[in-house]
User: Fold these one by one.
Assistant:
Number 1:
Amino acid sequence: MKGVRRGARRYVLALLVTGLMGLTHADIANAGPAQHDVLILVYHRFAERVTDSMTVRPDTFRSQLRYFEDNGYRVVPLSDVIAWHAGGPDKLPPRALVLSVDDGHRSVYEVLWPMLKARAVPVTLFIYPSAISNASYAMTWDQLRVLAQSGTFDIESHTVWHPNFKTERARLSPDAYRRFVHDQFRRSRERIEGELHRPVRLLAWPFGIYDTELEAMARDEGYTNGLSLDAQPVTPRSNAMALPRYLMTQHCDTSCLRGMLRNAQAHHD
């Protein structure tokens, strides 16, 4: 499974970085998404020593946030974006920005939280329970409880153990595949709710893989929204079960960020 995961992540990274970096400085001048577009960022790990593209150094993270702040962005809770997208009465500030982190790596507790604690910045975590209090790289349930009680972290589902649904569909019969998917959705939600005593209604698609069948099964299991890895802004027309996010990496420098804003503007136009 680790080999499949690495391969899929490399594919996603290549796709997103290519799309963001293939823009000239002339193209990106004075770029920025429209007032009613929202950027959702997704991170994975934080550390001074970078061992893979998914690990972001603390100073890189700070510089990325500083760039967005300097360009008029304001970090808001994902729940506010969900309500806005559903047509609720609450309005979002211009250039709203959401921070999310997938997988439940212990660096969220050890590195990210200390950086954000004094600022009370809202963050949504998407975790897969099989790793929590089990894998050496992951947080513990006690640490997640601390984050949940801080008032700035929302903790949602990333399935039970982060499967590749394309691989599972190919190896299982249609009935077995549907049972497998329902089990991944149900057990993750029930475990997180049982440990943290908070409702879980959001699902981040492992490897960004989703389709209409998966979306229907997720809704059957009580999820109201899904989050993808499509490098686009969220607009009122976005699919509620595949709200797009931008994959953030150590290699996303100023040029990458400018390209991201240009990409968002082009999508709106």
Number 2:
Amino acid sequence: MQKKQLIMEKALELFAEQGFESTSVQQITERCGISKGAFYLSFKSKDELILSIIDHFMMQITADIDHIVKNSVTNDKLLYKFYYAIFHAFHQKSDFAKVMMNEQSNYSLNKELISKLRYYDQILDQTILFMIERLYGKNVAAIKYDLMYCIRGFMGTYSHLFFFYNFPIDLEALSKSLEEKTNLLAKHTTIPFISEELAELCNNAIPEGLTKEKMIKKIDKKIKEIEESIEMESLILLKEHIVKPVYSPAIVKGLLENIRNHPQCKWLTYLLFQYFGI
């Protein structure tokens, strides 16, 4: 395991146990079995570490959901897969998510943390809108933004089952229930409230610029971080294709699939899918 990943995992354990403020860099290094010097080679501060952990979690779930929505062969069970993936991720990270919810009101990173979470929220909103348009088409043109907010409301409300109640949750039953509720809303809602203009005002972040130079730089950075040969070779080939396009879309998609499930490549895969327009 790489040192940076080790620090993030052990720090996550401590944050879940005692919160952000009560956890010191000294405690983190002791849990990891490393020196403070080794810690500061990976992270400039505890604040940077916390934001990196949030980035890691949000990048993974955002990339996973985007892949499910845009790469499902048919619309059958798409809503079910969407909800299942969301709540499965919540279940896996429930301890840390609970800490985040408790700490946002008093931790010194509040503004930057909220800004970062909002950035990922906006990306997820775009994915949900894509899913709505794919599932229901013109039938929900007038209420698609309301439907998006209803889906987000389901996600937020039902996530409390994981964060605040210590009993087993049947993810399949929950996903099926929300699939049914969403379909009913799409079919029977007739009075829209959220207009396109209002939605744009609430979602005005500019997505990360996907220039050739930025993508090459990101790939170079990732090549230095990973050790697996298939993923590394795929990244090298993708970089060559960005510099001089030579592969068909099918081959590029295959290369992206080679790196998609690597925990350190999920966000880069998402960005590359957007860059190549696949």
Number 3:
Amino acid sequence: MMPVALGPAQAATMAALDRRIREDAWSATVYQTLASRPQTELWGMEHESGELVAMMVLAFGPWDAELELIGVATEWQGRGLGGQLLTLARQRLQQSRRERLLLEVRSNNRTARMLYERHGFRVDGCRRAYYEPSVPGGRREDALLMSLTLAASYSLL
């Protein structure tokens, strides 16, 4: 599978995949808004049938970018799709001359943390009790702040 750029026309499809992946999924309206922003890129992985099975949202700032979302449908996890999307994120940042890629992840999401660490991300900090409980009556979860430094700096000349 090769990554494909996603736009407003795929907003409902992105929202449907997001609902399959996580409880606090974004709506189609949110995806339409994100897709219309010039500083945001949405990428996906489609099965040969055309089914969207993985996606990511990158938001670009002046010097860095944030991985706002990366998700893979449960039945497609463990096949390297998340890694392919992270490789693409790194390429897009290098092409746009950004210095760092930032993200936050639930502290108990070991699978995601291991993926990020394999791709060179390091923990920078923690937001205590940041996430709502994932189960009713559960405890709030910490968010780990992670980053990947791509370059010390880029010359403006």
